[in-house]
Specification:
The chain is an alpha/beta fold and 160 residues long. The chain is built from 8 helices and 5 strands, in the order βαβαβαβαααβαα. It has a 5-stranded parallel beta sheet with strand order 1-2-3-4-5.
Length: 160
């Protein structure tokens, strides 16, 4: 997977080169990171292949709903960068998340990762702690209710 990190100068030329590599079968996935709706629209107009994925900062306090909905409509995969809020202690101790975690007998991190999965977001949580790595994989034996998803949606501050 090749990604353009952000919509900097001449990103259209970089995208054209990635399209060529993709068409030659040398890479399997081409996408972008940190692109906003306006950048995605511009790139799609200029390209032969639409971005397959956009990696953007996403966590319960920065949910990026409009961008997420746009990507879903245009069939661009949403990959969360910093899916656990980059280890933000305040997020991982948020009373709403703590309560939901307690109700499911899970950790707050597991609740947040499951929230991403329920939204259809790709997650690659980072950890070097073996216990946390194991815990991060144990999110497929429960689901969040619509009410719980709504409660988490209300945590969005719209700020990074």
């Amino acid at each position: 997977m090749y990604l353009i990190h952000f919509a900097g100068p001449h990103y259209e030329k970089a995208w054209a080169a990635m399209e060529d590599l993709y068409m030659e079968g040398r890479i399997k996935v081409i996408g972008v990171a940190n692109f906003k709706i306006k950048h995605l629209k511009h790139l799609i107009k200029q390209s032969r292949i639409s971005p397959m994925i956009n990696q953007i900062e996403t966590h319960p306090e920065f949910q990026q709903h409009d961008l997420h909905d746009y990507m879903v409509r245009d069939r661009i995969l949403h990959e969360a960068w910093g899916p656990l809020g980059q280890g933000n202690k305040a997020l991982l101790e948020h009373p709403v998340l703590v309560e939901i975690a307690r109700n499911h007998q899970k950790s707050v991190a597991q609740i947040v990762l499951r929230w991403h999965i329920n939204r259809g977001v790709i997650i690659i949580p980072k950890s070097s702690n073996l216990q946390r790595i194991k815990e991060n994989s144990e999110i497929f034996d429960f689901d969040l209710s619509e009410e719980e998803m709504d409660r988490i949606r209300q945590l969005d501050t719209i700020f990074r």
